[in-house]
Amino acid sequence: MPAVDGAETTGRTGLPVPAVDTSKPSIARVYDYWLGGKDHFAADRAEAERLLAIYPDLPRLARENRQFQARAISWLAAQGIRQFLDIGSGLPTARNTHEVAQDASPSCRVVYVDNDPVVMSHARALLMGSGVGAVQGDLGDPAAILADPDVLKLLDPGEPAAVILGMVLHFFDADTARKITAAFTSWLAPGSCLVISVGSGDDQTGGRLAREYAAGTLYNHTPEQITGFFAGLGMVSPGLVEARDWDPALPGAPAGSRAGRVLAGVGWKSSQRPGRDEGNG
């Protein structure tokens, strides 16, 4: 995607993408850079490299998060979940949600949601297919997302589903993040799951990254705060752990003590939960 400012341009799909201000870094494009993608501009690369000077492990954490999401989606599909709502999905990359889910069962249906028009342009060009949709929406307004006709066209709120909030809740303060997850928890049918991953760290690293981050407002949530995002849900074993350690087949592990890390977990809404639990609400 060439760096054209203030005008509609052409992405790597060959299709037009909305006009963007390429002089400012984008959350999605900074993350894409860390994952080794190609959809970023000079401002995004400069911001990504500036943050790498603070914590060089950021690309590894981004990969660990993607791997966690793939494991969680595959496991949920194996438990019979056939509906996935991936919010704040970011730019398409290898092994996207619908690819993982539909590998487990071609009947899986996936809706991607993001508030970035460039992300949506790429999603509609690259990710569309049978049982797959893309909707522009703001995570800060869950009610609007859940009422969107294009969401309801593919997802049945009366059936079990998985809502995926991967690396997005640290862009909201803790109180707002709890209200967001509570809205999705209320919407989910029994037998559903909420998949969450959140960047976290000590004050020297996680706190400094939050203060220095220029692509958006970033909050360094504690493990206790992140646990609160699962209020009203049970926790699938191994509970809230580092993303690299999440595996329902393994016993629980401490949430980790690295200076910077991604904490991840899956909450269930059902008395007949999938997998073992550690109880949380």
Structural category is alpha/beta
Average pLDDT over all residues: 85
CATH class group of the largest domain: Alpha Beta
Task: Predict the CATH topology of the largest domain.
Answer: Rossmann fold
Share in helix: 25-40%
Radius of gyration: 18 Å
Number of helices: 10
Measured between the Cα atoms of the first and last residue, the distance is 46 Å
Low-confidence stretches: 1-17, 276-281
The SSE order reads EEHHHEHEHEHHEHEHHEEE
Q: Which homologous superfamily in CATH is the superfamily of the largest domain?
A: Vaccinia Virus protein VP39
Which of globular, elongated, flat, extended, rod-shaped describes the shape?
Answer: globular
Work out the number of β strands. 10
CATH architecture tag of the largest domain: 3-Layer(aba) Sandwich
Please indicate the count of domains. 2
* Major sheet summary line: 8 strands, mixed
Strand content: 15-25%
Index terms:
281 residues; alpha/beta; Rossmann fold; eight-stranded mixed sheet; two-stranded antiparallel sheet; 10 strands; 36% helix; globular; disordered C terminus
Account of the protein in words:
By secondary structure, the chain is of the alpha/beta class. The chain has two domains: 9-54, no CATH class; 58-269, Rossmann fold (3-Layer(aba) Sandwich). It is 36% helix and 17% strand. The protein has ten helices and ten strands. The protein has helices at residues 27-34, 42-54, 58-78, 97-104, 117-126, 142-147, 149-152, 174-187, 203-212, 223-228; strands at residues 9-10, 16-17, 83-87, 109-114, 132-136, 162-166, 192-201, 234-235, 241-242, 260-269. Strands 3, 4, 5, 6, 7, 8, 9 and 10 form an eight-stranded mixed beta sheet that branches. Strands 1-2 form a two-stranded antiparallel sheet. α1 crosses α2 and α3 (58-78) runs parallel beside α4. The protein is globular. The termini are far apart. Mean pLDDT is 85; it is low at 1-17 and 276-281.
